[in-house]
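Lab notebook page, bench 4
Experiment: in silico fold of construct C2
Operator: M.H.
Input chain length: 246 residues
Purpose: comparison with the prior construct
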Amino acid sequence: MKKQELVFGIHAVESVLKHAPERVLELWLLSGRQDERVLPLIEIAQSWGIKAQPAARKTLDEKAESTQHQGVIIRVRPAKVLTENDLEELLDNTEMPFLLILDGVTDPHNLGACLRNADAAGVHGVIVPKDNSAGLTPTVSKVACGAAEVIPLFQVTNLARTMKRLQERGVWIAGTAGEADSTLFEANLKGPLAIAMGAEGKGLRRLSRECCDTLISIPMAGTVSSLNVSVATGICLFEVVRQRIG
């Protein structure tokens, strides 16, 4: 297991400083940058005794292995890996669970975007298989714009077993599939719920589909046969939001 990792991008760094400052080991800032977007970061860091170290753009590019760092990088202790036991604790303490299951989403950009959608929609936690899934990489944190630090990500050993356990705890699982009998907008999504999304192209794996209580589809009017998984996830999550506040 890695003892440390990097987080970059203004929103991602700000989220770590606000929600988990004890994880921060070092902070690097583009030399000469003192604008209104980074000054709040510097103030938060200083309040925790973290000094910003100036660095050249080339140095930051090399550290991040990317040019998308927005001039700010932190070195952090890895976040705690959440497991099935942590998921049970969340269920014990949540009256109306709203969960997102991502089956086989291996692209870190897609995972980051899904976490951002989940945070915006008020999801309590995201569940992914320990294998065959992207983890919390710097790219995921950057794309998630801070959501990766506040949305619990549960990495489970056996996704099908976890789905069955959710059902035992009274959580209804709605999986997305093109061959579904009903559409997203016809389904009742108001109770304790998990939305299960598969990887783009492949969709939910057979065993995961079989573990769902119902299968739903997003009605498609054009010639495109499928949507990017993060786009489809956003549509599904906010239909749940619409039904719950309606």
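Observations: The chain is about 35% helix and 20% strand. Residues 9 and 59 are 15 Å apart (CA to CA).
Next step: discuss at group meeting.
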